[in-house]
Every structure is written in structure tokens, then in C-alpha cells.
Design goal:
The complex is a heterodimer. Chain A is mainly alpha-helical. Chain A has one domain. Helices cover about 80% and strands about 0% of the residues of chain A. Chain A is built from 4 helices and no strands. Chain A starts with a helix and ends in a 7-residue tail after the last helix. In chain A, about 30% of the residues are buried. By secondary structure, chain B is mainly alpha-helical. Chain B has a single domain, classed as Cytochrome c-like domain (Cytochrome Bc1 Complex, Chain D, domain 2, Orthogonal Bundle). In chain B, a hairpin with a 2-residue loop joins strand 3 and strand 4. Classes of the chains: A mainly alpha, B mainly alpha. At the A-B interface, helix 3 and helix 4 of A face helix 2 and helix 7 of B.
Chain lengths: ~100, ~290
């Protein structure tokens, strides 16, 4: 019992920082970062459809006042955009390995 | 003190000699050589599929699967592209408002010339595809351009391909560094992975022709454009080369480029060039 209570408290404490509801400011910061990465990918002509969808989902959630979901979607969009940038950079040379010679 | 200076100098000289000895190989490997590329490209498919007749590669998935081929041959008696073909023929001969026709824009009146497209325009310094040339013809004659994706453009190119059936693809790369650069850019686009699926054109059409992706049998890259435009059952209609590129990009979860973007024109140039010597079979029908 003592152990369970201790564990429960520990769990509650460890979750406490992330349990804070995301604010509009959090969303705006996350969205701005995602949008910047997305624009960079588009500039490299290597945008992914899933990045665009995640950005749109973030905006939709924010418009509906669900900033927690909006932040999560924006962070996903940023991660996807960064992956597409990595792909574009690495493929500048890596494509040659596929070539029929 | 002197010795300390001489050792790095000797190392530098040795490094420069080594670089000089190795760099010609590096340059040679990166040299743009379309003739060697086309030979290697065709040999790859001929060796991978020794039982497929060379001229059969232009029939895409039907060259990879006997059952599919038989079904397709039966379908060819009443081909699904027939309506587009008839519409294209009528459109081609119908004068613009100024009295001119498409025939006035093309060599040989536009008949039997599909095998020469795309070509490199030295004046403009860019690749000109048949779809682009058709819309430029319209605009030069005061008409609005068509969508590059389907409908009228597919009908017109279907008719022009039909008048060229059996003619061997004959794409030229002029002695112009810009033409070589366009060819190389197309090659790079073909082999570059993109989209969340991390697929290149080659992932499907070089590494896996004859294999299935869900219900589809993948076509070999060799001669893949010789059958364009195509009626696709999946689309329930006709589609142009532009539509094919856009769809492929979307399927890899990459945002497609605008139709007739430089990259698409260049990859069409590359794919058509490496199919030189294979017959035009368009318009085609695909599952």
C-alpha cells in the first residue's frame, strides 16, 4: 500500500509539468516553428503531403480552441518537415547509388 | 625548424599527387554520357527479363504477366481510350477561331511525330514536351490553354500518339551543355527518393517491375512513356504524362510539382531518351 501510494505520487509528480494545458501562445510558437521548417522543405521542392495535412490539422484544432491537440499536430508537422529536409539534403548525393550503370 | 616545414610540405605534395591521380576517375564517374546511360539502362531490363521481347517493354505491366497480357489483348478490340482518340482527332482538325489548326504548329502537320517529343529547344534552353507544345500552339492562336492533366489534352496527345504508333522513339540530345544539364537533371529526379514513403521513381519501376503493390503490377521504367497518354481504370478515364508524374508523387506522399515544371519536363526527356529505339504504343490502357 505504501509502495503503491509512493508510486502514485511519483507518477503524479512526473506527469505534472506535461499536464499543464497548452495555451494559445504554446500553439503559436509550435506552429511558427513548424511553418518555418515546412517553408524550408517547400523551398527545396521536397514538401511532403503529410506535413501539409499536419499543419492544417494544427490550425483546425487551434481554431476550435483545442490548443493541446493543436500543439501536438504542429510538433508532428515540424518533425515531418525536418525529415523531408534531411531527405532532400542526403539525396543530393545518395541518388547516385540507385543509378543503373 | 626546416625539417618541420618540409614534412607538411611533403605531405601536401603527396596529397596533391594522390588527388591528381584519383580525380580523373571521380570526374569520369560523374561525366554525363547519355549514350552509355541508355545502353546500360536498356541492358539492365533486357537481362532482368530475358524472355520479354524488347519491343514489348512499352506495354508496361502486360509485358510482365502473361495472364494480364491476354486480357489486355482482348480489351484492345474495343479499347477504353477509343472515345478520347476520336475526340482528339476531331479537335486536331477543327480550326481555331483564327482559322488555323494544330497542324500549322508542328512539323509534318503534327502527324507521326510523337517519337520526337520531348525535344531540347536550343533557343529557349529548355525541354519542350508535346503537351507544352500543344498549349503553346493554342495560346499562339488566341486560344486558352488546356489542363495538362486529362480531358482535352489527353485526347489530343492520344490522337498524335496514335498517328505515330510503331515509330521508334527518337529523342536527340544536342551538343549543348544546357541539354546535357536538363538530361542529367531528369536522371537525378528519376533516381531521387522523395515523399514520406522515401520512394524514387526507380524504387518501383527499376527495382520492382513485375512485382505487385496492392492490386497493381508495376511497369518497367523502360518504355514507360511510349504508351502515353493512357486510359487507367483506376482513374476511370484518360491521363497524360503530367498526370502520371503528379500521381506518382502523391502516392509517395510527396507534394507534386506543378504540371510541366522543369523537373517533370527533364525527367520526361531522360526517360524518353533511354527508350530510344523502342516503338510508340500510345495511347495505352492500364489497370
Amino acid at each position: 500500500m505504501k509502495l503503491s501510494l509512493g508510486l502514485a505520487m511519483l507518477l503524479a509528480l512526473s506527469l505534472a509539468p506535461s499536464a499543464r494545458a497548452a495555451s494559445e501562445a504554446d500553439y503559436k510558437a509550435a506552429y511558427a516553428a513548424a511553418e518555418a521548417a515546412s517553408k524550408e522543405a517547400a523551398g527545396m521542392r521536397n514538401q511532403w503531403t503529410v506535413t501539409v495535412s499536419a499543419l492544417a490539422a494544427a490550425k483546425r484544432a487551434a481554431d476550435g480552441g483545442d490548443f493541446g491537440r493543436a500543439v501536438a499536430a504542429a510538433r508532428e508537422a515540424e518533425a515531418l518537415a525536418k525529415a523531408s529536409i534531411f531527405q532532400a539534403v542526403s539525396e543530393k548525393e545518395a541518388w547516385k547509388a540507385m543509378e543503373i550503370r | 625548424m626546416n625539417a618541420r616545414i618540409h614534412i607538411p610540405l611533403a605531405s601536401l605534395v603527396a596529397a596533391l599527387v594522390a588527388l591528381a591521380l584519383t580525380s580523373p576517375d571521380v570526374v569520369a564517374a560523374d561525366k554525363v554520357d547519355p549514350v552509355a546511360d541508355a545502353r546500360a539502362f536498356q541492358n539492365f531490363f533486357f537481362q532482368k527479363f530475358p524472355n520479354v521481347k524488347h519491343e514489348d517493354f512499352v506495354n508496361g505491366p502486360y509485358s510482365m504477366n502473361e495472364d494480364m497480357k491476354r486480357q489486355w489483348q482482348e480489351k484492345e478490340e474495343f479499347p477504353p481510350y477509343e472515345f478520347a482518340l476520336e475526340a482528339g482527332k476531331e479537335m486536331f482538325s477543327t480550326p481555331f477561331k483564327n482559322g488555323k489548326t494544330y497542324a500549322d504548329c508542328f512539323p509534318n502537320g503534327g502527324i507521326g511525330i510523337r517519337q520526337n517529343y520531348p525535344y531540347f529547344d536550343s533557343g529557349e534552353g529548355k525541354v519542350i514536351t508535346l503537351e507544352l507544345a500543344l498549349n503553346r500552339c493554342r495560346e499562339a492562336n488566341g486560344e486558352a490553354p488546356y489542363s495538362y492533366i486529362k480531358d482535352e489534352m489527353a485526347s489530343l496527345t492520344a490522337y498524335m500518339a496514335y498517328t505515330s504508333r510503331g515509330k521508334l522513339m527518337d529523342i536527340k540530345i544536342p551538343d549543348d551543355p544546357r541539354a546535357l544539364a536538363a538530361y542529367e537533371n531528369g536522371k537525378r529526379y528519376f533516381y531521387t527518393r522523395r515523399g514520406q514513403m522515401n520512394f524514387s521513381c526507380a524504387s518501383c519501376h527499376v527495382q520492382s517491375p513485375g512485382e505487385r503493390i496492392r492490386a497493381e503490377t508495376l511497369a518497367p521504367a523502360l518504355g514507360i512513356l511510349n504508351a502515353m497518354p493512357i486510359y487507367r481504370s483506376e482513374w476511370s478515364g484518360m491521363g497524360t504524362t503530367s498526370r502520371r508524374f503528379v500521381t506518382c508523387n502523391s502516392q509517395t506522399r510527396a507534394v507534386p510539382l506543378e504540371p510541366q515544371a522543369d523537373e517533370y519536363r527533364d525527367v520526361e526527356y531522360f526517360l524518353s531518351y533511354v527508350a530510344n529505339g523502342l516503338p510508340i504504343s500510345g495511347p495505352g490502357a492500364r489497370p
